[in-house]
Amino acid sequence: MTRNYLLSTALGLCIATPALAVEKADVLNTYADIAAAGYDDSRITAVALQAAVDALIADPSAEALQAAKSAWLAARVPYQQTEVFRFGNAIVDDWEGKVNAWPLDEGLIDYVDLSYGGATDENHFAALNVVASPAFTLSGTDVDAAAITPALLAETLHEADGVESNVATGYHAIEFLLWGQDLNGHAAGAGNRPWTDYAAGEDCTNGNCDRRAEYLKAATDLLVSDLEWMTAQWVDGGAARAELTETDATGISAILTGMGSLSYGETAGERMRLGLMLNDPEEEHDCFSDNTHNSHYYDGLGIQNVYLGEYIRVDGTLVSGPSLSDLVAETDAALDTEVQTKLSATMLGLGRIKSAAEAGFAYDQMLERGNAAGEELVMGGVNGLIDQTRSFERVVAALGVDQIEFEGSDSLDSPEAVFE
Fold first, then answer.
1. In terms of pTM, does the model score above 0.85?
2. pLDDT-derived band of residue 115, with 50, 70 and 90 as boundaries?
3. Which residues 6+ apart lie within 8 Å of 189 measured at CB?
4. Of 151, 171, 233, 335, whose CB has the highest number of CB atoms within 10 Å?
């Protein structure tokens, strides 16, 4: 870290003494600047997705559907890097379920394969199929769904009947509407929804193409508006920035809580180790598109961004400033080196998963029981995430931050409970 030095004299000697150390307030401002940029990039790429969806609806074709898929994949890159702002920031954690909730019972939204089954004791609306139902009864209330609007999705359908898997909004609802179900199990291949699911008249496949387009449009418009709202929370004067910077101690605690919880319980546990234990391709984070390798990679990158105080925007602009790394280095340089080394090791492990998937070894194939190569790749990422979390715990102690409890996961903390 570069420091300015002040010259002072004592007993006639000229002595170089360090100026002010890294200010925690400056570290918090860098963190908030990265959050604002990350959410704004998520908004920008969601607007591009919105344009691609509008083009698909206006003139359906295989090319238009592929363009919308490509826009969705691009939109995931900045968004996944913002997940590190969860857990420690209540404003984000309370909002996140609107845009990134998973897994979802896709039968709530649209047609599904017969093998999917119907309603269950856990979810009476698992096969509601809103696209095919202009009117239905939900939790004893008659619902007029003749028009599929953002309000219908957000206020009536999302987490309907208090069931978390009734995901009606966000990236994964859009993902399902673009790709359809992935019926390949552990075999290669993502969802394969035909473009004719959005065609007009006799060319329409699987019925209700106009309503399917309405749903896709409503979900995409809602995603854009939700991201606009969150971006505004992080700009100067925004509520999330103000809450973070209210006191230095609670702000640093928020940063570390987000890093540790995303690293350990959420990504290493719920998103990676659990799926491997269950050998279940449905436990993929981006299961319809087979994009899970990227979701894990960019979650890891988001954690590294926050520690180093650096984020590269989608236009190539670098957002950077005083960082948690700088703060740790002033207290314990060896610990800072340890954290940076472990972050790099984790990114190497997640990068191996990403490279393998891009070479044709899909993440759901890695989860198959008995696939030693897949297990080695996934556990390489899991172990890196766990290992870096142990160093985050040391950072908590070194900085004298109040005791922080990182999110856990039965898959890591009580593996036997997974199968009970």
1. yes
2. confident
3. 182, 290, 362
4. 171
